[in-house]
């Protein structure tokens, strides 16, 4: 199984955010959400068959629904940006989206507590525990938080940078070609510019 030190290090946050920025209207919603749902179904089926992890009970499904609401929030946040926004603004949006995803999904884990963790009492302290320490037998939750922020920023920078480079209005060759076709100025006025 994948090392837990890389848990929550995922491109999914950046995919949802960048889809909101760069994809056309409806496609920005259905394409990433459908992809993420199908991927999760496949992974859950694998872990259920291979390791016996149960994902099909109501608390697990309720918690998973918060994941998709969180992805929708990332798409919505991406829609608040433009493809022409600066790379710094887009990376900041990707990191903000990752933070939002972390808060929403960990709050859902605390609220629904699908694995019946005794640490997740329905108090303010239980919620803070869900956001910082987590449950016994797992790395502290802040490790997941760190990985969420790092991957959100990194993959947003990669996706947004690549899309900006490949969808720029004018390629370097066009700029060079355009520069050679412009008439050179001699400093003398054109006949239409001479006043009588």
What is the N-to-C order of secondary-structure elements (H for helix, E for strand)? HHHHHHH
Taking all Cα atoms into account, the compactness measure Rg is 24 Å
Proportion in β-strands: under 5%
The total count of strands amounts to 0
**Total number of helical segments?**
7
Integer tally of domains = 1
General description of the model:
By secondary structure, the protein is mainly alpha-helical. It has one domain (4-168). Helices cover 66% and strands 0% of the residues. It is built from seven helices and no strands. The protein has helices at residues 12-22, 27-51, 58-79, 87-112, 124-132, 141-166, 172-181. The mean pLDDT is 81.
List keywords for this structure.
single chain, 196 residues, mainly alpha, 7 helices
Chart the SSEs and their pairings.
Elements: H1 12-22, H2 27-51, H3 58-79, H4 87-112, H5 124-132, H6 141-166, H7 172-181
């Amino acid at each position: 199984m994948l090392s837990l030190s890389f848990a929550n290090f995922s491109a999914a946050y950046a995919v949802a955010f960048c889809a909101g920025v760069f994809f056309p209207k409806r496609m920005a919603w259905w394409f990433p959400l459908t992809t993420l749902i199908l991927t999760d179904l496949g992974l859950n089926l694998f872990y259920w068959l291979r390791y016996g992890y149960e994902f099909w009970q109501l608390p697990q499904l309720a918690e998973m629904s918060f994941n998709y609401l969180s992805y929708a929030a990332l798409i919505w946040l991406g829609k608040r940006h433009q493809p022409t926004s600066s790379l710094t603004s887009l990376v900041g949006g990707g990191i903000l989206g990752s933070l939002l995803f972390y808060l929403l999904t960990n709050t859902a884990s605390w609220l629904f507590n699908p694995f019946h963790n005794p640490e997740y009492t329905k108090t303010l302290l239980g919620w803070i525990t869900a956001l910082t320490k987590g449950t016994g037998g797992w790395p502290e939750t802040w490790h997941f938080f760190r990985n969420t922020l790092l991957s959100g920023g990194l993959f947003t920078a990669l996706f947004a940078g690549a899309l900006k480079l490949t969808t720029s209005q004018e390629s370097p060759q066009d700029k060079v070609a355009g520069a050679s076709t412009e008439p050179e100025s001699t400093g003398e006025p054109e006949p239409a510019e001479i006043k009588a």
